[in-house]
Amino acid sequence: xxxxxxxxxxxxxxxxxxxxxxxxxxxxxxxxxxxxxxxxxxxxxxxxxxxxxxxxxxxxxxxxxxxxxxxxxxxxxxxxxxxxxxxxxxxxxxxxxxxxxxxxxxxxxxxxxxxxxxxxxxxxxxxxxxxxxxxxxxxxxxxxxxxxxxxxxxxxxxxxxxxxxxxxxxxxxxxxxxxxxxxxxxxxxxxxxxxxxxxxxxxxxxxxxxxxxxxxxxxxxxxxxxxxxxxxxxxxxxxxxxxxxxxxxxxxxxxxxxxxxxxxxxxxxxxxxxxxxxxx
Amino acid sequence: xxxxxxxxxxxxxxxxxxxxxxxxxxxxxxxxxxxxxxxxxxxxxxxxxxxxxxxxxxxxxxxxxxxxxxxxxxxxxxxxxxxxxxxxxxxxxxxxxxxxxxxxxxxxxxxxxxxxxxxxxxxxxxxxxxxxxxxxxxxxxxxxxxxxxxxxxxxxxxxxxxxxxxxxxxxxxxxxxxxxxxxxxxxxxxxxxxxxxxxxxxxxxxxxxxxxxxxxxxxxxxxxxxxxxxxxxxxxxxxxxxxxxxxxxxxxxxxxxxxxxxxxxxxxxxxxxxxxxxxx
Lengths: 280, 280
Known about the structure:
The structure is a homodimer. Chain A is of the alpha/beta class. Chain A contains twelve helices and eight strands.
């Protein structure tokens, strides 16, 4: 029996936790101080509340870190301070450099580090979601991860490689969505949105629907894309590529972060939020 | 009989010139000091060589400016200095602010200004290409422009509106192509291109072909996209949107400008040119 500690059961984490539960693996989480909504999500996913992060670290052979990218380093520091000596898998959307930094932190605490990156929606049905892993220990972790609907794929190249796959993938999906929303916001601010939409009907027939989709599916999640875009920008800068695309995308998602807890806004509302300043 | 001066017959300009020639309109250009290739293009398009820009301005009722965006202001200054008093149409990929600046320059010289923006390839067959126009005089110019395969569309909103349509449109097409090439360059620099391409096969099945296409169709034209991306960045900044997407795109096309005169490079060559610096 393997014991896996899942930190933390957010929208993605809870489903990853459910996916790795099996006859051979139980999954713990740390419920102390967490909201009722998180408790419900974790319990629905069949995760066992061990109480504190310290209790999770004490009882677990493997810790899976699945959290918003801006929280990934602090979580690693917390676990390292507990002298966790099992396998620490960082599955977050962070740059290769941040992944290696996290690796250094948890290894200093005594753990074995495995770099990871998740591509796809929270895994409910098989085939939707891949968990990329790299580094020593990746093969063993890959086996654990594939108990349920998740597919694990080992990336050659050591720690940082799995994160690089995730960064490259998201740099298109979330970067291009932000760009498309910026395009519409610009046309709207300049008063030419109707002309643009008519031109798109002729020569880019999928773009209007795609802009609607980018607004609808990202508005409530935008708050946690900010850190991810900043990690991608850092990834680009590290290889000498311009970081402006994703610093721009971070700013777009920052302006959409107001929609975190409310109802899903219309595209027109989002475009107004993106351009508070209008041309003279 | 209307006389139209076409400045200058590049790849786009020569075909625009051919498209506006008709029983009621002749088209002049200024061959002085131009290359043999430009002379051949203009002559193939049925344009009449009037010699100098001064001679074109003297003889023309309408001047169409179709040139790389970085040259648009200087061309307007040259024509204004000649006291051209006809209709000056700027059809270039410039920001609304630059379009209005050009309008001010040529109006000071005595001309009537019409803002324009061309969307589509050089117009050879009907339906491929639209010439957006705005400002007073746009209706009259629209009639002239539709003699051949070009379609003219009047945009409400005065000078700058046609340019805004063009900027918004190109900010997606050329901006997203640059982003996609940057994505591939990053993955390649990090050594995970194979993993990315395999993931794309599963979840983004058109992207690999699209990256190949973005490289192939833009490599030799990249030199003239630099100024266009900078004009788009300025357009975004003017309405308070992040300019980083298109400053990034300008940098991508700047690194591809080396392919202007040579053969079309492979995608792998382009990706190497985009990331001269590799991670440590």
